[in-house]
Amino acid sequence: MTAITPDLLEDIRSRFAHVEDCPFTGPRVFFENAGGALTLKSVVETSARFAAIPDNQGRDNAASAALGEIIAKAREDAALFLNAPGGKVFVGESGTELLFRLIADACLGSAGGTVLGSTVEHPASRSACARWADVSGKRHVLIAHDDATGTVSAESYAAEVTEDVAVATILHTSPVTGMGMDVPAIAAAIRAKAPEALIIVDGIQHACHGGIDIAACDIDGYVISPYKVFSRHGYGLAWASDRLTALRHDALIGAPEGSWELGTRDTGAYATFSDVVEYFEWLGGEVSDATEPRARIEAAGRAIHEHEARLTQAMLHGTGNLPGLAEMPGVGVVGGIDNPAREGLVSFWADGHASAELVRALADQGIRVHTRKADHYSGNVLTPLGKSDCVRVSLCHYNTEAEVAAFLSAMQRILG
Asked: Which intervals hold domain Aminotransferase class V (predicted)?
């Protein structure tokens, strides 16, 4: 396997829209990928093409049949991307909406007294668990994450899981700390004491970094937001196991058994996810000798992880003659400096500088980043650290070391 070379990186960047410029403000470095990754140009073209088609699925005509085939292929592509055996792939309003639906059905359709999650989770899963645990008469238990590392471990789950756990949730990667969790190990810890638990994973932040393998995880649900993995806004994508699908859920009377979707779907949404999978396959072929589609997807995930690790190392420890964040006086990093769980994201604060002011100052120098506040989105991580806010710098594999250098140079000027 080969790394992402400068020539390949140039090819990668050519496949995305607005890599170097914002259509509203002009040239900029895009380090706000956790808020929504850049969009593949093929996705833009596919969206426009399908937006113009007036036909719907389920009609007795050639156009309708073609749309059905495109949806079926996209479901197969998504299952390949997720390495999902059996179960159902379907789209919904958003990743958050799909987490609510899967968690609601799991809570209402299961026996047992406990819904188990962790404090590192995004409010999409925590809020859904809080609501539906209450509605279904279950306890909602949250395992404390490790403030120092920004993670929750399999050992922490093992210490808290009980035999009566009916539903459990896992966050694959945190959009605040940037750290990935060991989903297979956590799922195994849950199954060791509660083998029948329905396990649902929030993979929204993780998906753009590659490396999803549902077959290796022994879970029942996995949800992503395609706009965070090179597609577009307007839909979420979920996988549900056969036993989760078999539970009662919202459906039209007389609808086909096992159908999750409500109403006519946007064929273009499905088709754009095929574009995403095709991109991962292409990238995997560029960085490896693999010929099978799944092997190429796995190779792409490894290359993405390695490239992003190099970028975050440069951001933390410096590049060229520029010092990294770890060497800048008064700068603290969420989750610590050298954390092997980090996935393409660095959240930091600088003593004496409000995060919102840093974000504005960076924007003035052409660097797009984001503020995280101790609110309902990020307070679970920031409040225990005694911080009211932080700056989130989120990278992706199409970013360059030169862009990291531009960020560090700007930080030097801002901090004086």
From this structure: 29-407
